[in-house]
Every structure is written in structure tokens, then in C-alpha cells.
Amino acid sequence: DRALLQGIASCLMKGITREDIENSSQEIAENWDNAIKSIKLAIDFLKKHCSVPTSKFIPYNTMIAPLIYFFSKKPTLQLAPELIKRLKRFFWLGVFSDRYIQSQDTKIAEDIQRMDELLLDNKKDLFKYRVKVNDYDVLLTDANFGSATSNAFMCFFASRTPLEFKNNEKINLERNFGQENQKELHHIFPKNFLKTKISENKKLKKEIAPYIDSIANISLVSSATNKAVSDRAPNEYFTKFEKDNLNISLSLNSHFIEDLESFGIQKNDFQQFLKKRSKKIATEINNFLEELKKD
């Protein structure tokens, strides 16, 4: 993977171009064990502090290079709170500002320099990019593991420790979204349910079809729950979950749903649901990012 090679090359030469990688091939071989240790620390940090359960959730693979560089110079996860907060800023403000959407090699080089600054002063004011997520950003983003923006939202979903609707158990995202496991994301209003509504009333096509795969209609659940829900109407399967789980509000809130009535679920109102949940997700993200900017 080029991102990993860039990370290793940055540890040795502070360079991440193809030429840097080729020129550092001998040094990479000689320092392989230390390089692997830095990679593992970077991955562990992403899992622990940035809610990246598996590699498919990483918004931009190239973002791992500056982290690999950082941990090559400070090979431990026992970091001061100030350092953890600034590294979290690097990740979260970076992904939601679309910083890496263009000129990635340039941005990597800049961030490696900033990692040096951070290593010299763990309270240095870094990575405070201007970010504002609005409702339409959420609504118009389709869920897709190949999309950096989609993955940013899904990492944020993971950060809220989603719970099972039926019993409030913590969902093991690493297991459920591992390479050999679930690839289909759970649609709160199931795809086939919505397609049936369209077939019954063609006038609804413009209001429904563009948003079936919207991240606002997605939640991270276990494979078992996804299969149990299947194509059932939301009010039907949530009524069953309510009977099984007397404290379902805990799980609902972990999926950015305040209640079933106001969010349109009891009436199977897809438009109301999208409006309320898009706003809820955007508000939660903006509050989180503002808090992260504070010293």
C-alpha cells in the first residue's frame, strides 16, 4: 500500500514522493521492525481515539503517513492528553474539512512538518481547520466505503458506540465490519420497503429515490440485526424492538434518533426522518468539532 510506504519513507527521509520511497528502499529494509512498530501504533491510535474499527472505514489512506511518522519519533500510546487531543484534531478536523481531497502529497508533507512541531511542543496550536457540517452535507452523502466523506460520517457513527436496538448491547464493529464479514450497511428505512412505496406511488420517486442510500438513512448494526429487519417497515420492526427493550431510548440515541414519533418512524414518514436525522447528525458533529478545538 502506497500510504504505508509513504509513512515508512517519511520516518527515514521526511519525504513521501515516489522518488523518496525508491531512494529509501535500503533504509526501509534495514529499519523494517521499527517501521512495522510505528505502523501498528498509528493503526492502534486510529482505532482507540478516532473510532476507525477496520481499514475500510479510513477516509483517506494517505492520512496514516503523518501518524506513522509521529509514532516513529514517539513509539508509545501512553501520550499526554494534550498530544492525544491534537492528534485527534489532525484526524477529525482533517477529514471533515476535506483537507486531503486534493494535493494529497503536499498536504502529507505539510502535516509531517506539523508533527515535528507537535513533538517539540505538545501544546502547540495546530490542526484547527475551519469546518462547518450542515444538514445537506449529511443528506446528500451516499453511504459507500469507497467515499472519504461517507467514511468520515461512519467513523463518527462508530465514535458514539452504537448499541443493539433489541437489548442495548454494544455492537462489535471490528467483528461485524471485518474484511470477511458484513459489507451491506443497515438502511433504517429498508431499500426494498422504499422501492415498494415508489412503485405504489410514482409521484414519490423524486422525494425518495435520491436519498435511499443517504448516510442519514444508515446505521451501524450487527449482521444479525440487519438480517432480522430485512425489508420490514420501520414502524413494524421498531415496535418489536420496543417490546423487547424497555430502555430503547439508549440505543436510539446512540444512532442519532431522539424518539420514534418526532423522527417520523411511527408513521413511516421517510422525508420527516431524513430531515430530523440529518439535522441531528450535523449538530452532533459540529458540537464535537468545536469542543475538540478548545484548549
Characteristic key phrases:
mainly alpha
Brief summary:
By secondary structure, this protein is an all-alpha fold. The protein is built from 16 helices and 2 strands. Strands 1-2 form a two-stranded antiparallel sheet.
Main β-sheet description = 2 strands, antiparallel
Strand-pairing-aware structural class: mainly alpha
Query: DSSP strand (E) fraction?
Result: under 5%
Compute the number of strand runs. 2
Low-confidence stretches: none
Global shape? elongated
For the largest sheet, list the strands in their spatial order: 1-2
Q: Helices and strands, in N-to-C order?
A: HHHHHHHHHHEHHEHHHH
The overall average pLDDT, rounded, is 88
The percent of residues in helical segments reads 55-70%
- Annotation field: number of helices: 16
Task: Determine Rg (CA atoms, Å).
Answer: 21 Å
Q: What is the terminal separation in angstroms?
A: 35 Å
